[in-house]
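RETRY 2/3 - previous attempt timed out on the joint model. Re-submitting the same 1449-residue input unchanged.
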Amino acid sequence: MLIGLLLALPLAGFLTLLFFGKRIGEPGAGYLGSATVGLSFLLALISSFEFISGGENGRHIELFEWIPSLGLNAELLWDPLSAMMTLVVTGVGALIHIYSIGYMHGDPRFGRFFTYLNLFITSMLILVLGANFGVLFVGWELVGLSSYLLISFWFEKPSAAAAGKKAFVVNRIGDFGFLIALMLIFASFGTLDFTHIFEVLHDNAAFITTATATAITLLLLVGAAGKSAQLPLHVWLPDAMEGPTPVSALIHAATMVTAGVYMVARTGIFFELAPVSQAVVATVGALTALFAATIAIGQRDIKRVLAYSTISQLGYMFMGVGVLGLVAGVFHLVTHAFFKALLFLGAGSVIHAMGGEQDMAKMGGLRKKVPITFATMVVAWIAISGIPPLAGFWSKDEILAVVYGRGGGYMALWIIGIVTAGLTAFYMSRMMFLTFWGEPRWDEGVQPHESPINMTMPLAVLAGLSAVGGLINTPFKPTLEHFLEPAFEFVHQAHIPEGVTPWILAGISIGAGVLGVMYAYRRYVVNGTQLEEGGTWETLLNGYGVDDLYGKTIVAPGKALSEQLAFTADAKVVDGGVNGIGAVVKRLGSMLAPLQTGLARSYGVGILAGAIGLVVWLIVAGGAV
Amino acid sequence: MEHSIGFPVIALLVLLPAAGALVIAMLPKNRSELMMPITAAISVLPLAVSLFILWEFSAADGAEFQFAESVNWYEPWGIGWNVGIDGISLLLVVLTAFLFPISIIASASITKDVKLYMVSMLLLETGLLGVFVSLDLLLFFVFFEMTLIPMYFLIGIWGSENRVYAAVKFFLYTAFGSALLLTAIIALAILHSNVPGQSISFNYADLNELALSSNAQMWLFLGFGAAFAIKVPLFPFHTWLPDAHTEAPTAGSVILAGVLLKLGTYGFVRFNLTLFPEATVTLAPWLGALAVVGIIYGAAVAIVQPDVKRLVAYSSVSHLGFIVLGTFALTSQGLQGGIIQMVNHGLTTGALFLLIGMIYERRHTRQISEYGGLSSVMPLFAGIFLFMAFASIGLPGLNGFIGEFKILLGSWLAWPVLAILAASGVVLAAIYLLWAYERMFTGPVDNEANKGLQDLNGREIAILVPIAAMILFLGLYPKPALDRIEPAVESIIDRIERVTDYEAPEFGRIADVAEVAGEAP
Amino acid sequence: MVEVIVFAIFALAALAGGLVMVSARSPVYSAMGLLLAMFSMAVFYVMNGAHFVAAVQVLIYAGAVMTLFLFVIMLIGVDRAVDRTETIPYQRPIVYVLGAGLVALIGIAVLDVAAAFDGSLQVAWTTGRPSGNCTLDCVGTIENISGELFTGWLLPFEATVLLLTIAAVGTVALGQFALKPRDEAPEGVE
Amino acid sequence: MIPILAQAATEGLQVTAGWYMGLAAVLFAIGSAGLLLRRNALVMFMSIELMLNSVNLTFVAADSGIGSLEGQISALFIMVVAAAEVTVGLAIIVAVFRKRATASVDDLAELSG
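RETRY 2/3 succeeded.
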């Protein structure tokens, strides 16, 4: 009941705002939106208590029959994993709603913004609460829709509109894989229900062949990569920064992009049956992490730094879930939601302060001007850099330890992880130093000012969470692991190695982080290096030109092919063929036309001759003689 | 079980619009402002009757022809008024009756010869309803052809610049298919008389009992199939469609896309699958392949169309490909998906054409490049357009997804490769619709002519809201519809399996396995 | 034998009438030739026991239809003898050949050629029942005809009503068009 | 002619259905020749009437040969159709004449290809 209600609240908010948003106006719409999500969070919190004592492993809430002949019902699953996700979504969501009241102040479509935000929360809840792949897919697509709507919220800007479309289309390519995975799953199992499938697989791992499991998992990975912006489908996320900053924080950092991680965690048992896929997922994750981290170094736009950082951090999560460190992956998902949302909101606050300026080249020396923003962002910075005891350290370290624990070829991934950790610390520090330290490089007339309370309050809350959030799952007291245990009961998870190894690993990763920060400090504070230009930096700024590459190899040829099909093949060949037949008939007709003299008596001769011929034929052939 | 309510309700349904046409024909010609409201009022009557039928229809017996009526006209040849509605035709009948009042109300801007226009619309409705209820092949053919003439007039008289070309092309192309259809129908009826003790028969029930040689089945399948493939239209017989759609007046496009194209897919399901099961099984992969080519081809061609109406027309080629694919996958899921998708496509594409018509009335252009930034000036219009676009893209929660998903599942069992290729149509749909949306609705309003555009008025909202409601309903709660389709579909698949050595592929049944697993410990 | 003589006389009359009709320069003579042929025809009907048909023949054809013809001839001018030279190339020779072909066909059909080849020399047209010896029920009296017409042929009979109505309406309509003046005067001005 | 005469000599001459049919056929030939050779629309119409009459004669003669009434009924129907045709046809002729001042069908060749 409560679960249904916690889903219904944002939905009701969405519907109310959809029809009356304009009438409610500012700030009522914002309060209404925030209230529904906040209430949802409270309900989720209350409903989660049942798992803390380690009770049942989840229950199904059937809403209504959806596609009965497929046995596909609108059914919710309330288990620790979905509870965890719900808490993150509604919790962070509520904070970002509140923040948005301040951020979107004065926007002519203030109400519409909260309509979309509530739609997003609803969709995301459908995604994480779905009890079968069908409902999951519904949520999956609906978050894509809300993401589309929110990215292109300022649709007057052509770049925003294009970014929204790009996000949706790239996601659709991922969904294409997901959809095929669904078909494969349905064809193999005859149902899409999680519990059903997992139980069967648990009881009888040979129910599907390894090949099938590999196919399913790789296809799921395509879907997950699309949603979570992993290589090679990451290109939409940086562009998605065209959306308002709270959107970037909520959708493109904290929640929606982690849906891929959630899905892999949810379907962990499939991955367990497909070792190849584990390696692929982990490798994709590791490569993405490294790849995006290097790009982040070269960015000038504060939000794009964070965007690539998000891609990179998602890579970590994929690494984690890829090696079946499901708890580690989800743990990082949670902590990342805290500190990345905080970073985005902080960045939003900075942008707000700078009157909309996003280019770091025109910031600098903001420490004093926006002290609360600065203070909270420092927390997030330390957290993401992996310096204990802040949140990022614990989760990132757990992932790295689990990867290390798998040994073998995974060692290479661990090394990539460590390198990335160093790079992460470096580019985050670069961002912080360029923004808050040094001399002001502001444009004329810019008067930085601290944001209002409804924006700083969420920052403070998130800073608190970023600081202590890691403590929910320390090696000393793995609360989260216990909490999530029932959800992963069917999966044989990978764990961190025993003994002293984890401590050594932690030391190395802390070392990498500290090194990164220190080098950045030397470079940007001590040496006062400004934003770099040219050469390699240009390449990094353009994200290695992947966009151009896709443009040249896929988009342009695809469009050319379409044009060929439309204006040559279709118009000339297919339709030309049809018209050609018509033309031939016409030609024949005009050849025969002179036979029509128009003289009735000539026709009469024809009739008579025909009649005589017919009778002759009857006599000769018909045996009438 | 007999489902008869002792009243010829189907005859009433089919003949009401024709009677209405007579009424309209008797109205004085100079009172053209009365025509639209009266016609709309008349067209609501068949809707009411169809809703009554929907209400009375027994879902459990969806495989049977209910409300059957049988009046002999020429008994020796089994020709007569044999009509009935089963789960397959039910929704199409309701869809037809539903779309007509909407498209008639949407025709308020027609000023040229309103009377003839309205008469054509009503006659068209009779023809379309007749096709879906006919259980006599000759009757079917008569109705099938009857739709052609009003449509020809609708395109040829009230269309845009190139209307005559489009109308003639439409007419000749489909009439060519019809000629083959008639030949095949007659051949089939005569073949029935070759059976000892049987005479010529056009009765669907009689012909269903007929065991044909595989050779005969093949030729007859092709004869029927040619007409239906042109009507659908299946690639490569589709080129009449973009022209006809583009040139037709709004209501014509709506009916053309919404209902007329379904005659082809309906014909495939109703006749090809049941009358020629062996040929169906043999030819199914070819048709499936053509359908997939159509899906991708239609979508690819749609992407670069400069004319938004043409774009939607090509998207129809793509969507109808899905329906044909589902039909010939010869699995229960695929066929169910195909049938529900017929309804879905009718709703969404119909709505898209309505929307395009509304903007056309304001700006008198269909070129995408003429627009831009419409979201700012017509937010409501933009919102509804986006809603319909997403329904067409197949966003879950809206109707398009249900059909596509079932079709893909069903065809996956038959031909996984084709299903995968077809699924790529889902991606392409997002590209062409969202790109068109981007170009038309977002960005700055840089064309002066677009600055003063009025947002939707009450009448326009009133015709769009019911469609949107249906789209949402079918997307969220398709159970009532699927419950009625399923028995009919099952019986068709069962029949094919019984008559031929074909076995419909099944899903892995987890339920069975789970039971075994449960018993083991 | 009387029958043969009567047949011979009226057959000659009919042929003569037909030939006159075809060859006369003036339409009035043509009409008279046709009239002769029709009267002869009526006689043949009587000889075949078709009394009612014969009566109708005289009433409708010889009476009404011929009168109509004459009216029209008078309306559009009697003296307009149309030019007899043929303008369509080869029309005449072709018609002669076809006419000969028709006659040849008659010969083949009427004389049982196959039988002739058999050597039995049967003549097809003499093998039927002699005409005129019909029993009472097949004589075309009004009673018999009406009995047949209104039982087995009711629907076609009623259809003729429709046909005649349409013809009447059509004729009136054509008359309306014809009333419009030749020289494109404005509408409504006679 | 020889077989006929021979038969006549042996069996006595009797008028049978065949006689009428032969006559009807000749009349039909005359009518068709008139239709094809004359250009006056009125005469063409008369030729058609003659052809129709010859057909009627065939029916009636066959009727008495077989001993049924259906031929006569058919003849009646043919007459009805002929009457209808004549009225409409003559009306057309008059209408055309009023427009064109000609009754020659060769002048009405608008439909030439």
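Chain D has a mean pLDDT of 81. Closing ticket.
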